[in-house]
Amino acid sequence: NNDTEDEERLWRDLIMERVTKSADACLTAINIMTSPNMPKAVYIEDVIERVIQYTKFHLQNTLYPQYDPVYRVDPHGGGVLSSKAKRAKCSTHKQRVIVMLYNKVCDIVSSLSELLEIQLLTDTTILQV
């Protein structure tokens, strides 16, 4: 049983390392785009859309469930609890990696708002933001 717990912890660590590196890549791309006097060739729409997809995915599937238990899905298919009951059972302890991801996603969202002021984007991209 200890072996499966250790293996599960190692997988979780590996996944969170990849998620963190992806957040760093998104931040790097957005920071480059929001730098002063950047040429128009830097504003690659596909990169902007991927950053938005990454941000939306982790907000919906990682951060919201971590901070608000109403968004959590019970993997065992347990009984249906009301939102108040879910919040009452919630622990306020957050993993350090989750807090780091939260801060990076906040930086990404802030930089996206700067990018909207700098560069004209398509309607679909604006709606995604």
From TrEMBL:
Cellular component, GO annotation: Scc2-Scc4 cohesin loading complex
Entry-linked PANTHER family: NIPPED-B-LIKE PROTEIN (PTHR21704:SF18), NIPPED-B-LIKE PROTEIN DELANGIN SCC2-RELATED (PTHR21704)
InterPro entries per UniProt: Scc2/Nipped-B
GO molecular function, one term: chromatin binding
Protein's gene: Nipbl_3
Taxon lineage: Eukaryota, Metazoa, Chordata, Craniata, Vertebrata
One of the protein's GO biological processes: chromatin looping
Listed name of the protein: NIPBL protein
Originating organism: Podilymbus podiceps
